[in-house]
Amino acid sequence: MEKACQMLQARSRQSSPALVSSIAYNCGFNDVSYFNRQFRRMFGCAPGQFTADPVTSDPKA
């Protein structure tokens, strides 16, 4: 999940951001819905919300 967080934060700085599904597949998940559920369980927000504002969405901050 750490790799997913890094990719999501980098996504917000890109002119053509990667899709959440691409990030999920790159992190080894075969099911995007499962990735979304696990991400929400670990970080308290959906991957798309984390991308929108990583500072306030990241519970470690």
Key words describing this protein structure:
globular, mainly alpha, 61 residues, 0% strand
Please give a structural write-up.
The structure is a single chain. This protein is an all-alpha fold and 61 residues long. The relative contact order is 0.20. The mean pLDDT is 83. It is 64% helix and 0% strand. It has a single domain (2-57), classed as Arc Repressor Mutant, subunit A. The chain contains five helices and no strands. It has helices at residues 2-11, 20-26, 32-43, 47-52, 54-57.
Quick take:
By secondary structure, the chain is mainly alpha-helical.
Here the CATH topology equals Arc Repressor Mutant, subunit A
Measured as a percent range, the helix fraction is: 55-70%
Largest sheet: none
Rg for CA atoms: 11 Å
List low-confidence stretches: none
Order of helices and strands: HHHHH
- Structural category is mainly alpha
Total DSSP E strands: 0
Q: Quick one: overall form?
A: globular
How many domains make up the 3D coordinates?
1
CATH class: Mainly Alpha
In whole angstroms, how far apart are the ends? 16 Å
Beta strand %: under 5%
Number of helices: 5
Q: Mind sketching the topology for me?
A:
Elements: H1 2-11, H2 20-26, H3 32-43, H4 47-52, H5 54-57
